[in-house]
Each structure stands twice: as C-alpha cells, then as structure tokens.
C-alpha cells in the first residue's frame, strides 16, 4: 500500500516529466513558486494566472540583465566553469528542434545536481538561449495556463474551490502542501526567509561570508551585503543557515522573538523557522514611490516648464529635469503598462530598455523647451549606435519628447526602409501618458496584464487611432 507521500511523488513525476513542455514548466511555477509560497496555500484563479505571467517575464528580464559571471559569482571559481559547461549542453539539447523530451529534461536535471546549478539558474540560462518559458521567450497564454491547471487537478495535485462571493480559488490542502514541502525540501517560504535574513545577526559581511563558505559557495571580495544575502537565499536552506550560529546566539534570538528558549539547538532552529515561515512581505505603498510625483508632471518635464516644476517642488536645479523625466518614464512603464525596465550597465546606452520576447525595446527621452520640437535628424546616429551595439534585435525604438519637427516623420520612415525590422516611433509625452492611463484604467479588464508592446511597431509618428480598441 502506497503512502500519501509516494502517491504525491508519483503524480509529480507524471506532470514534471510530461510530454508537454508547457505542463512541465507551468506545473513547477504553479506548485513551487506560487501556491507553496502563499499563506494558506491558495490564491484566486485570476491572481494566480497574473503571477505566472509575472514570474515568467521576470525570468526573461533577469536573463537580459545578467551574464554567466553574474550568475556564478565571478570567473575565478568552479561554478563558472560548471555553468559554462551546462550552458553548452543546454544549447545542444535545444539545437535541432524547439522542444526537449522528458528524457532530456531528466538528464539535464541530473547534470544540474552534479554541477551545483540551481533550477532558478537553469531557467535564466534557458531564457538566455531564447527558449524560456517558450521558444522566442514567448510567455504562456491564459488558455495554456488553464489547460495545465486542469492537468494538476486531474492528478490530485491541486484543487479548486468557490467562495461565498462566487470567486474561484486554486488551493493545496494543508496535508498535501506539507507533503510537497518535504519532497521539495522547502521548509520555509521565501518571504519568511528573506525577512529572517534581515535580522541583526546577518548585518555583518563576515557573518554572511562565513555562512556561504560553510556551504562551499564562492564569494567575491567586493560583493555587497545584499548580494551575499541573495546567494544565501539561492543556495542555502534556512535550517543550514541557522545551524551556523551557536546555541547562545539562537537562545537570545528566540528570547527576543518571545519564543520558548529551552531545548536543544535543533529545537530552537525549528521554532525560528516556524516563526518566520508565517511572515509575508507586503508591497510598499505606491505613495512612497517618489517617481509618482514626477509622473504627475510628466508633460511639464518633457517641455522643461521650470516655473511649474519649481512651484510643485519637483526640481531645485535645471539639471534635474532630464533625470526625473527618465525616472517618470520608468514609472509609467512599470506601474501603468506593466513592463519593468531592465537594469543597464555602463553609460553609453539608451534611457530605457524593456524585454520583448527574445528581443529588446529601447526608448530615449528628449526634453526640450518651446517651441518644443525635437528633430530626429539630430539624434539619429545616437539611436542607430544603441541599436547596432545591442546583443539582441531591437524592433522598436521609442523617442519620447514634447513634440517633433515635421521632418522627423520622413526621417523615421526612411530609416526603417534602410534598416528592415527596426521602427523608430515618435511619441509625445502627452500621448504616452494618455496611452498608459487608458491601459491602466478600471474600464480595462486586462489592466493587470502587460501592455502588448508589439502594437507600437510602426515607424514614424505615433497615432493612437491606428491601434483600434485596446479592450
């Protein structure tokens, strides 16, 4: 007679090594990345689907922001060599067709375990190849997500309930969730672990490095505390992290948290794990984001209206205008159009960069006083240079300004004819803000989804009417 653990393990094997890549990818996200991280192990169906899309996009973004050196903590360590080898093998697995068989997936999993590469790193490397979450870094659709949710329900790995308001939730019953946590060796939610790592014992760099050294995780001399904490989250289980402290330190920690202090070291560790496991990080209040203030005067920043900007307390010096115009644009994309701008190293770069499937979208802000008309000719070589030096294709380059000289339209169209597949889109600050607020309005049932950036792929002046109905 099979135990409940064996039954769950058999069902997980079926979905984690299903013939369908969508099932393999989405099942892991739904169960491990979302439901097991929720207090109560459940989430409203619509929220679950939005989280899945957000997680997939964040992995694509991460792949565009990091290289193998970043992922391995430097070139002068064994992990970097292992990661180079794994990246090569992963590329070979995808080489001849846009799919991986369950057997190939299983072999890759065994290779990861042997080389000390996490599943999170695997996802990022696969995205760097343009194969995650689907070929060409396409995100899964809600229809595909629903199909996989049905598969999980058929295998008894997830259940759906309806509350008194008529809302549907996907849940893991507590007994099932606890079995899964043991199988996945997941003894604390990530939020709780992150909160725990904010405790005062983790403020010393020497302590963080000692914990990582005990786990044989390489570090660099110049790494900041926050980078070391991220490595602990990635590589070290909470129990092993706490085991690095002595009994007196754990005694005082439990005392400070009003937890029982008696018992063995293991018992104190278990109490601390149970305490932090119930904690969840809440999103910061949007009112605390100073970029919102700059977004509110977006058009005034674009046309460098010093009088208004000073009266509103937005600037003290003229030099602040361009930087705050850029930051307000980041806020617009992130909070209204649901596309988080990528971090960019160096100085010779556009003002903004977004992931777009296996490509990039770039933008540049050009503020200008009255008559407030930007001539594309004056900046074309600059924009061309950004696109030429990009390691990925750039199908859309947005120029955001208060207005444009009439000649700019024909310059953008001519550029597209000479550089097939590149569209320079001229959009005013007023037009972009209007589009952002239209998308994020309560009238749009899709407002929590990413705006379909491909709609902007038309050279020359942006014209809202050409997009038709957005929702």
Describe this structure in words.
The chain is an alpha/beta fold and 471 residues long. It is 51% helix and 8% strand. The longest helix is centred in the N-terminal third of the chain and has 21 residues, at 45-65. The chain has helices spanning 4-16, 21-34, 45-65, 68-72, 78-93, 102-115, 119-128, 142-154, 174-183, 190-196, 205-214, 225-235, 238-242, 247-256, 265-277, 291-296, 298-302, 306-311, 320-336, 380-389, 407-418, 429-439, and strands at residues 42-44, 159-162, 168-171, 352-356, 359-365, 396-401, 423-428, 460-461. It starts with a helix and ends in a 10-residue tail after the last strand. The strands form two sheets. It has a five-stranded mixed beta sheet with strand order 4-5-6-7-8. A three-stranded antiparallel beta sheet has the order 1-3-2. It folds into three domains: 4-183, no CATH class; 190-277; 286-467, Restriction Endonuclease (3-Layer(aba) Sandwich). It contains 22 helices and eight strands.
């Amino acid at each position: 007679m099979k135990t409940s653990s064996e039954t769950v393990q058999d069902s997980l094997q079926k979905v984690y090594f299903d013939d369908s890549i969508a099932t393999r990818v989405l099942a892991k996200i739904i169960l491990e990345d979302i439901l097991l991280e929720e207090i109560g192990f459940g989430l409203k169906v619509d929220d679950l689907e939005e989280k899945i899309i957000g997680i997939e996009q964040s992995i694509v973004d991460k792949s565009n922001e990091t290289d193998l050196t970043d992922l391995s903590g430097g070139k002068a360590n064994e992990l970097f060599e292992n990661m180079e080898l794994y990246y090569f093998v992963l590329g070979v697995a995808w080489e001849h067709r846009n799919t991986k068989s369950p057997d190939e997936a299983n072999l890759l999993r065994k290779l990861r375990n042997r080389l000390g590469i996490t599943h999170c790193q695997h996802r990022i490397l696969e995205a760097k190849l343009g194969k995650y979450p689907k070929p060409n870094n396409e995100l899964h659709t809600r229809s595909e997500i629903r199909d996989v949710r049905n598969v999980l329900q058929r295998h008894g790995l997830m259940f759906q309930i309806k509350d008194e308001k008529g809302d549907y939730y996907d849940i893991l019953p507590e007994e099932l969730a606890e079995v899964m946590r043991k199988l996945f060796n997941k003894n604390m939610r990530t939020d709780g672990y992150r909160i725990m790592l904010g405790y005062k014992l983790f403020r010393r760099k020497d302590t963080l490095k000692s914990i990582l050294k005990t786990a044989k995780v390489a570090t660099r001399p110049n790494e900041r505390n926050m980078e070391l904490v991220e490595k602990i989250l990635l590589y070290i289980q909470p129990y092993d992290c706490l085991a690095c402290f002595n009994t007196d330190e754990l005694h005082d920690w439990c005392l400070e948290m009003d937890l029982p202090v008696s018992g063995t070291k293991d018992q104190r560790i278990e109490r601390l794990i149970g305490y932090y496991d119930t904690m969840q990080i809440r999103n910061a209040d949007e009112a605390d984001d100073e970029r919102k203030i700059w977004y509110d005067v977006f058009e005034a920043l674009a046309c460098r209206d010093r009088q208004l900007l000073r009266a509103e307390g937005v600037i003290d010096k003229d030099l602040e205008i361009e930087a705050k115009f850029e930051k307000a644009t980041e806020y617009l994309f992130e909070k209204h159009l649901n596309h988080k701008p990528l971090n960019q190293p160096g100085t010779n770069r556009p003002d903004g960069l977004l992931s777009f499937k296996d490509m990039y979208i770039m933008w540049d802000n050009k503020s200008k006083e009255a008559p407030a008309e930007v001539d594309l000719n004056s900046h074309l070589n600059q924009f061309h240079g950004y696109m030429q030096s990009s390691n990925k294709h750039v199908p859309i380059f947005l120029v955001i300004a208060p207005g444009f000289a009439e000649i700019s339209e024909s310059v953008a169209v001519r550029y597209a004819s000479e550089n097939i597949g590149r569209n320079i889109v001229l959009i005013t600050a007023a037009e972009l803000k209007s589009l952002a607020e239209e998308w994020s309005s309560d009238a749009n049932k899709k407002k929590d989804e990413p705006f379909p950036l491909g709609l902007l792929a038309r050279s020359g002046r942006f014209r809202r009417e050409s997009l038709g109905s957005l929702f």
